[in-house]
Amino acid sequence: MQRELTYQLPFKRLTRLSRAASRKAYPKLWWLTWVWVASALAAVFLITFFADAIQDRLDAVGIPFGPILLFVVVAAVSLGVAYLLRRLRIAEVKSRATFNTTITMKQDEGGLRFITEEIEHYLKWRGLSQMLLDRDGVIVSHGNLFFLIPDSAFVSPDDRLAFIREVYDRLGERARSISERHVAAALTQATSAPA
User: Fold this and answer.
1) Helices 66-94 and 51-60: angle between axes, nearest 10 degrees
2) Alpha-carbon gap, residue 40 to 35, rounded angstroms
3) What is the pLDDT of residues 133-162, one digit of tens each?
4) Which residues 6+ apart lie within 8 Å of 51 measured at CB?
5) Is the pLDDT assigned to residue 101 strictly greater than 70?
6) Residues 6+ apart with CB under 8 A from 66
7) 146 bridge partner residues
8) Are residues 36 and 56 both part of a single domain?
9) Does one domain contain both 28 and 69?
């Protein structure tokens, strides 16, 4: 059975989709994050509300600046929990997709195709929103999707330079204006003479 669907999604719906999908796809992380936020806020509220009583008790055992010390402890614990939640989030994302896979980039008259064993992205020329040069490669993007073509993928520096020029020439006016300051040095670079 073949099916073809045509539809539009407004930006507002996409942002709601992002939140809802994230909450449903990673429920453990979502709940842990809210427990962490609620716990930190409750601790700060309790320290603030009972600051005098806490200070009186800690003065009795010779500990000055009790509430301030507790704020520092809450902040340190919160940072630790944030770090652990970030690690858990990364582990969950890595469990759903293969990231160390071979990528094939094909350029044709319509755009750039990024192919792996599991997925394929096709960026049409008019869909490219920006081109950047990074320390180790060329980055093209469509909105918030960024694709890196490492310098090591090119046969030579001249091949890399030709690719940059070809892609830049096909960018739309807005994409060019956004990309220009990032690729200007490469665009003015001379091709090396054949040996």
Assistant:
1) 110
2) 9
3) 988 899 999 988 899 999 999 999 999 999
4) 66, 67
5) yes
6) 51, 54, 55, 57, 58, 59
7) 141
8) yes
9) yes
- Over residues 66-82, the pLDDT tens digits come to 788 888 999 999 999 99
Nearest-CA neighbor of 96 among 17, 33, 29, 25?
25
- Say whether pLDDT at 13 is over 90: no
Q: H or E stretch including 53?
A: helix 51-60
Residues 22 and 59 placed together within one structural domain of the fold: yes
pTM of the model: 0.67
Query: pLDDT tens-digit profile of 106-122?
Result: 999 999 999 988 889 99
Per-residue pLDDT, 26: 84
Q: Are strands 120-124 and 111-115 parallel, antiparallel or unpaired?
A: antiparallel
Unique residue bearing structure tokens 């200070």: 55
Q: What residue numbers bound the domain in which 77 lies?
A: 11-94
